[in-house]
Design a protein that fits this description.
Layout lengths: L4 E6 L9 H12 L5 E6 L15 E8 L6 E5 L15 H11 L7 E7 L11 H19 L3
Parallel strand pairs: 1-2, 1-3, 3-5
Antiparallel strand pairs: 4-5
Helix pairs in contact: 1-3
């Protein structure tokens, strides 16, 4: 049976701050009851991930972002065929557009949790600034998910 909430953290754990998606999932696994929450991790979003959105009541995407204006942002998503639509990696909005073309079910509410990041070098660890931002984002999303029925 599919769990009603999906939290999808994506990024490359070997590329410094790009690891925030998978690291946030690790935090949730340690701090939340996951009986209604599925955690999914991958290096990037791909067309096939549209199938992971089926039968959900809520979907949250988590990613590192260089252009994030605050330590993190939490924004609603809408489907859009953007420049990533035809590439090997999709944006969350493009993935939602793919989901809509399947036409099987209405799109659940979807959000993007972007964590401000600055260092993406291969083999580097999380930057000090991003680590602090990630800690804030973890506390925020855990509290948000605990409030859900």
């Amino acid at each position: 049976m599919t769990k009603p909430i999906l939290v999808f953290g994506y990024g490359n754990p070997s590329r410094g701050d790009d690891a925030v998606g998978p690291l946030l999932l690790d935090y949730l696994a340690e701090h939340l009851d996951l009986s209604t929450i599925e955690l999914l991790s991958d290096f990037q979003l791909q067309i096939e991930h549209a199938l992971d959105l089926q039968d959900r009541e809520l979907v949250i995407f988590v990613d590192a972002a260089e252009n994030c204006p605050d330590s993190f942002t939490f924004t609603p998503l809408t489907p859009a065929q953007d420049h990533s639509y035809s590439s090997h990696a999709l944006s969350p909005a493009a993935l939602l557009s793919v989901y809509e073309t399947l036409g099987k079910q209405p799109l659940p509410p979807c959000f993007l949790l972007s964590v401000q990041a600055e260092a993406f070098e291969l083999g580097s660890g999380l930057s000090e600034r991003c680590s602090a931002n990630l800690a804030e984002a973890c506390r925020f999303i855990a509290a948000f998910l605990k409030q859900r029925p």
